[in-house]
């Protein structure tokens, strides 16, 4: 609460300073919408409208449909095949006269040569058959297992993307607040330089100072104005990036609320954090699923040595085909096996085992990389805590200095430029303290992201 209150006061001063600045110092887009934004609202907008998260969600849906396609091979496939054909010529059966009998009592049987046709030139067949894989179900099971791993990977990547976008929202929010504080300090420095320039000009005119002192103060004033312009440009760039992350129209002006930063997150110790990575870090969990997928590939490669056995059943209708009734059924099984495939099965099995070993090595490397990130983050946290302590002490000194200079001015023992410069130094010290604290907040939330928790 103390941080939020102090930040609100400084941002209020920054807004007033910007309002009193030269209107034509920085080109500003006109007619841009303005959105008042708190940190929770920014997170909600990003979760709802960010296009990277939309793509991650679609990837999960795509993986689930691929699994459904593979699961369909568990069930029998029923298929109908119909054909209509015209035969240009038919081979008939010729029965010569008297082929069956040449007795005097009966005469010739048949009495003349007979030409018996076989079928018709126009034929039609239609059959509906069922094929049920049997031994192939082992391969299907391995494929479905791999597809399940792909679904888990897609979900973990979607969760990781959400956590990363949430961290990016915090980063941009903090950077914009920091830049506004720095802009306020730069504006205070511009005011101080302007007062110093006026005093040096008066001193030169009174013959109490050389003209080079006035030129030096003028150069310092211009440098401070340049710093102010640079900070304003940086704020505009950050605002454009923030608009894109939140899914807002580019150019939307954002008015941030400094009182919505929330409480400082509580972290476990660095050893506890590293110990929990295997159960919580999305990248580690995704690498584990890649290992499971590779194991399924090895199983499928071994199943390729098993002959393919399928049960079949078919009911058919025909017209125009000789020696067959119009309606008949067929039942049985089909067995197929590649006696020689040029060594493809053995090579595929070796490849699957290599890919499994690669996945296991990648899992170990991912755990190591994430552990290094955690230890490095905790080292930076400790350094930032020390920096905050030093910056806070500097702020106390600047506050005391500003008070003393103001009292001296009241007693006509100090120049107005000294007061202005002390106020500029005080604003800069406040910006440094708050920048360090916001940096600490961001780093702590980055650790939470590594541990699989979404920063809020």
Please give a handful of descriptors for the protein shown.
456 residues, alpha+beta, two-stranded parallel ribbon, 10 helices, 64% helix, elongated, disordered N terminus
Structure summary:
This protein has helices at about 1-20, 40-50, 50-70, 135-205, 210-245, 270-275, 275-280, 280-305, 345-410, 415-450, and strands at about 35, 75-85, 95, 115, 120-135, 255, 310-320, 325-335.
The general outline is elongated
The helix/strand order is: HEHHEEEEHHEHHHEEHH
With strands numbered from the N-terminus, the spatial order across the biggest sheet is: 2-5-7-8
- The low-confidence parts are 1-7, 9-30
Rounded to the nearest angstrom, the radius of gyration is 41 Å
Question: CA-to-CA gap between the ends?
Answer: 16 Å
Q: Provide the helix percentage.
A: 55-70%
Number of helices: 10
Q: Describe the main β-sheet briefly.
A: 4 strands, antiparallel
- As a percent range, the share of strand residues is 5-15%
Give an overview in words.
The chain has helices at residues 2-20, 39-49, 51-71, 137-205, 211-246, 270-275, 277-280, 282-303, 344-410, 416-450, and strands at residues 34-37, 77-86, 93-95, 114-116, 122-133, 253-256, 308-319, 327-336. Strands 2-5-7-8 form a four-stranded antiparallel beta sheet, with no helix packed on it. The chain has a two-stranded parallel sheet with strand order 1-6. Helix 3 (51-71) packs antiparallel against helix 4 and helix 4 runs antiparallel to helix 5. Strand 7 and strand 8 form a beta hairpin. It has ten helices and eight strands. The longest helix is centred in the middle third of the chain and has 69 residues, at 137-205. The chain is an alpha+beta fold and 456 residues long.
């Amino acid at each position: 609460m103390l941080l939020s209150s102090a930040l609100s006061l400084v941002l209020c001063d920054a807004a007033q300073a910007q309002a009193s600045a030269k209107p034509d110092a920085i080109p500003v887009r006109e007619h841009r919408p303005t959105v008042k934004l708190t940190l929770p609202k920014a997170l909600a907008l990003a979760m709802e409208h960010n296009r990277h998260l939309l793509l991650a969600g679609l990837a999960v849906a795509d993986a689930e449909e691929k699994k459904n396609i593979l699961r369909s091979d568990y069930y029998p496939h029923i298929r109908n095949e119909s054909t209509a054909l015209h035969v240009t010529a038919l081979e008939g059966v010729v029965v010569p006269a008297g082929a069956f009998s040449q007795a005097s009592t009966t005469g010739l049987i048949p009495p003349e040569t007979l030409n018996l046709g076989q079928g018709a030139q126009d034929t039609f067949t239609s059959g509906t058959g069922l094929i049920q894989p049997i031994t192939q179900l082992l391969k299907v099971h391995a494929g479905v297992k791999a597809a399940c791993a792909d679904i888990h990977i897609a979900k973990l990547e979607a969760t990781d993307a959400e956590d990363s976008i949430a961290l990016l929202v915090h980063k941009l929010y903090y950077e914009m607040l920091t830049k506004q504080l720095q802009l306020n300090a730069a504006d205070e420095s511009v005011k101080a330089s302007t007062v110093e320039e006026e005093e040096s000009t008066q001193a030169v005119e009174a013959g109490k100072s050389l003209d080079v002192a006035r030129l030096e103060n003028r150069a310092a004033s211009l440098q401070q104005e340049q710093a102010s312009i640079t900070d304003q440009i940086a704020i505009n760039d950050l605002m454009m990036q923030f608009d894109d992350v939140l899914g807002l129209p580019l150019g939307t002006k954002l008015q941030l609320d400094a009182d919505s930063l929330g409480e400082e997150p509580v972290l476990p110790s660095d050893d506890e954090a590293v110990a929990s990575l295997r159960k919580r870090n999305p990248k580690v969990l995704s690498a584990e699923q890649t290992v499971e997928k590779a194991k399924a590939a090895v199983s499928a490669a071994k199943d390729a040595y098993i002959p393919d056995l399928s049960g079949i059943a078919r009911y058919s209708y025909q017209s125009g085909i000789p020696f067959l009734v119009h309606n008949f059924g067929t039942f049985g099984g089909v067995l197929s096996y590649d006696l020689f495939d040029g060594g493809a099965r053995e090579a595929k099995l070796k490849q699957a085992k290599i890919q499994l070993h690669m996945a296991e090595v990648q899992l170990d490397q991912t755990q190591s990389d994430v552990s290094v990130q955690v230890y490095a983050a905790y080292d930076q946290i400790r350094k930032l805590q020390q920096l905050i302590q030093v910056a806070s002490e500097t702020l106390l000194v600047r506050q005391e200095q500003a008070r003393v200079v103001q009292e001296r001015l009241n007693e006509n023992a100090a120049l107005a430029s000294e007061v202005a410069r002390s106020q500029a130094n005080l604003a800069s010290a406040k910006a440094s303290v708050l920048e360090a604290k916001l940096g600490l907040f961001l780093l702590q939330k980055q650790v939470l992201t590594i541990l699989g928790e979404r920063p809020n």
